[in-house]
Design goal:
Number of strands: 12
Radius of gyration: 25 Å
Helix content: 40-55%
Mean pLDDT: 89
Distance between the termini: 65 Å
Structural class: alpha/beta
Largest sheet: 6 strands, parallel
Shape: elongated
CATH architecture of the largest domain: 3-Layer(aba) Sandwich
CATH class of the largest domain: Alpha Beta
Low-confidence stretches: none
Order of helices and strands: HHHHEHEHEHEEHEHEHEHEEHEE
Number of domains: 3
């Protein structure tokens, strides 16, 4: 295997000059740089990034643990993280916890063993918080994304309660009194906050909350479909349905299809998160869209600031604003 000495000998320069060319640590004359680059190609030299990282006490790697990488919002967050990491010269190691606290704990253990420089985590519903806290106590920078809770770490997410309250009040303004909520797993902090917004809206409108109209469970599409089918079959079915996530939205629409119901003819419909290219659906789906890519990018920027030591203040909690787009599914004109 070629060494930096072999490159220096072929290019007729010192090893320090080769290092400056490879790492960009000091300007080198163009003719010298070209000779070094040609020598690198000719010898097949590869920089030992692991040894370099050990000398710097850094691995230039970041751990990212998400609950479901196939979910559109998490996929967009991952892209935001990756973009910022790439610009910073870091590699992202991705783990999917699958809403399993034991898998999440194992992923934390494995990533810690690989000495990642920092961790980005979207905690599962019943996460082993003590495991995350232990990682923080050991000095590894951690940023929670999307799902914010009591762990003493930086956190980046979206406003959930107020936007959901606004959406439900919009349906009330359209004349709806029986409004169902496809919530899903309320042990997930974001879902709990969206449920709170739903209840606050009903209270503000003077509508008594009906527990039979609130669908909980795993939050998966098939589970939501089964539970929502029963709600839509009630003697007094809801005239409007709000979903708290992409998965529950899919479950609601699947239940409606199975019963031969359509929106907004049989019931008005709106969702938090929703589907990519929601404006192409017919009818168009009223959606609260969170800036998922920006959440990932902001979390990565915050983590890099902790790793570099440029940010030493107490943990920060950043909430970004989502955007509500009203479309035909809730009864608004096209």
């Amino acid at each position: 295997m070629a060494t930096i000495t072999d490159v220096a000998r072929m290019a007729g320069v010192s090893t320090s000059t080769v290092s400056h060319v490879i790492n960009g640590t000091r300007p080198v004359r163009d003719e010298t740089r070209i000779r070094v680059e040609e020598a690198v190609r000719a010898t097949g030299y590869r920089r030992d990034s692991l040894a370099r990282a050990m000398r710097r006490s850094r691995t230039d790697s970041i751990g990212l643990i998400l609950t479901d990488v196939s979910e559109p919002a998490f996929a967009a967050m991952a892209r935001g993280v990756e973009r910022e990491a790439m610009d910073a010269g870091c590699t992202v190691l991705l783990a999917n916890s699958g809403e399993d606290p034991d898998l999440e704990a194992r992923a934390l253990e494995v990533l810690a063993e690989r000495r990642v420089d920092g961790l980005l985590i979207a905690p599962v519903a019943r996460s082993h918080r003590e495991v995350i806290a232990a990682v923080v106590d050991q000095g590894t920078p951690v940023v929670l994304i999307d799902r914010l809770d009591g762990v003493k770490a930086d956190q980046v997410g979206v406003e959930n309660t107020a936007p959901m309250r606004e959406l439900v009040l919009h349906l009330v303004a359209h004349g709806h009194q029986r409004i169902a909520l496809a919530a899903g797993d309320t042990d997930v902090s974001t879902i709990a906050e969206r449920r709170r917004g739903y209840l606050e809206a009903l209270d503000e409108a003077g509508i008594t909350a009906d527990d039979t109209l609130i669908v909980t469970g795993t939050g998966r599409a098939d589970d939501t479909r089964e539970r929502m089918t029963g709600v839509l079959r009630q003697s007094q079915p809801p005239s409007a349905v709000v979903a708290a996530s992409t998965e529950t939205a899919a479950g609601v629409l699947a239940a409606a299809k199975g019963l031969g119901l359509t929106t907004p003819e049989d019931f008005a419909f709106a969702t938090f998160d929703g589907f990519p290219y929601a404006d192409l659906f017919r009818p168009g789906i009223t959606t609260i869209t969170q800036p998922a890519h920006e959440i990932g990018a902001t979390a990565m920027q915050l983590l890099l600031s902790r790793i570099d030591g440029t940010l030493t203040s107490r943990p920060r909690a950043i909430r970004l604003e989502p955007e509500i787009t009203y479309r035909e599914s809730c009864g608004c004109p096209a």
